[in-house]
Amino acid sequence: MKTMTTALISLLLVMRESAMTQDYEPTRTYEVLVQSVRLPSGPSGTITVKECDDCDYETYRVTAQTVYAVNGKPMRLSDFRKVIDDLRLGSGHVVNVRRDLQTDKIVKVFIYTQ
Questions:
Q1: Which helix or strand (DSSP H or E) is residue 37 part of?
Q2: What are residue 113's phi and psi, to 5 degrees?
Q3: What is the structure's pLDDT at 18?
Q4: Which of 18, 50, 69, 91 could form a disulfide with 36 if both were Cys (CB 3.0 to 4.6 A apart)?
């Protein structure tokens, strides 16, 4: 009976782990100063980010499915570019760039302003 209980608990733990990993999408979010990001010119291009002063620029692919958002509100890339261009005049604003680690493509670019 003890072996049966141990086997059942092990099976339940494996099933739980499997269920938890099914919804997990491995991503990495870069937080870069607005001056350290080069936005794509079109919906299917590349975005370039520099994480620190001493870091090299890194380039990633964006797609038509990439989401651009300001203060949680999704918007077109052209409108997002205008907001970013206006913010470049100031300092200290941080742009978040979320990359899907499996596809190596950018899924979301967003910023929060006050």
A1: strand 37-38
A2: -120, 160
A3: 55
A4: 50
